[in-house]
Amino acid sequence: MDKKRGESTKMGGHGHGPPYKIPDHTKFSITGIPQLEELEKALKAKGLRDPWIRNEAWRYHPGFGSKWARANKALFRGLPLGLALALVTVGVSKMFGAKDEHGHH
């Protein structure tokens, strides 16, 4: 199959654009984030500088949540649905008279 001029020949290209858009680095700033400002001051006191510190700014965005909020979301996301399905399963098995095979021990 012939490729058209300018069409991507790299793996996964499929003639489309990139599957994601990399955000502009100027959107992120550590001003107003006390933890990162404190880290920058501590590094400056030691004569160091971290040019990539702005890459951590997204972690402190209010929409991202705290560390505990993310953990709770990850651990308990499916709990209500799983509990409901377990109760439905037990109810259906009781309703159709599933016998307890281990009762004679």
Kindly describe this structure.
The structure is a single chain. With 105 residues, the protein is an all-alpha fold. It has a domain at 25-95. Helices cover 37% and strands 0% of the residues. The chain contains three helices and no strands. The longest helix has 17 residues, at 79-95. The relative contact order is 0.06. The mean pLDDT is 80.
Apparent shape: elongated
What share of the residues does DSSP label as strand, in percent?
Answer: under 5%
Mean pLDDT across residues: 80
- Individual helix count: 3
Number of strands: 0
Unreliable segments of 5+ consecutive residues:
none
Helix content: 25-40%
Oligomer: single chain
- How is the biggest beta sheet arranged? none
Q: Write down the secondary-structure element order.
A: HHH
How large, in whole angstroms, is the Cα Rg? 27 Å
What distance separates the N and C termini?
70 Å
Helix-strand category: mainly alpha
Give the topology, please.
Elements: H1 34-45, H2 67-76, H3 79-95
Overview in brief:
With 105 residues, the chain is mostly helical. It has helices spanning 34-45, 67-76, 79-95.
Keywords:
105 residues
